[in-house]
User: What shape does this take?
Amino acid sequence: MQTFLLFLFSSFIFGQSLSVVSELDTTQGYIGDIFHWTIKIEGQKNKSIQLPELGEINDTISIRSQTLIHENSELVGIDFEIMVWDTGQFVTPEYAINILNEDGSIDYSLSANPINFSVVTILSASENPDFRPLKGPVPVKGIFPKKTVFLCLIMFAMLGSMIWTWRQRKEVHYQKVDYTIIESPEDRANRRLRDLDSSGLSKEFYADLSHISREYIETKYFVRALEMTTEEINEFQSLFPMEDELFSEWHQLLSEADMVKFARKIPSPEKMSADKKRIYSLISQV
Assistant: This one.
């Protein structure tokens, strides 16, 4: 008799060690609302549990999502999102949590208590359940697409103007250069020197004088003297096939011209005439 009572007492303690808690976030909602149904197991945590997934229930109640609940890295429950597509009184579906043995087999199952809930319409919760007043007529687009036709006309007009502009262009006729009348570098330099007026402004005079000598050296030796500064010309003396004395004289003349152009040095008329003769001499000796 004592053995039987002891077995009954131990069975009662084991049976009370685990319990299932079933909760619904609300017991009333509207069509299309989401009901959160939470099922958790409480009590002794040394048992492994299995939480089956629910499939489609029926055409009225559907499961939107199923999410497992973990606490302290342990599986303790599951959360269902339930949606109802009709009005009336409903009850949560049957659900049982499986308690597993150490080998993974099912020891026993604990069922969750069903919960009743209701779904109503918005009209039932309002003070005036009558039909809403009718809305006015909604404007509709006309049969004739005026805007589309107008944009198409603009597009065709632009296209026509582009074609007209293209046809108005004039063809370019290139004339072959007569190389027999082209001046030699020396003739061009001498002609420019003859036309150079030494009675004008000294700055313009020395700018033309420097340009004449640079252009002559560039066209004669194919060295880009017009694009080089005086310092660069002196630095790259090896590019110019000239005698050292002649190159030094040319570089000195370029430096003096730079002083007039940039440092506002005022030369005398005699100096200007002498520098013009120096360029004549340079051209004849190079």
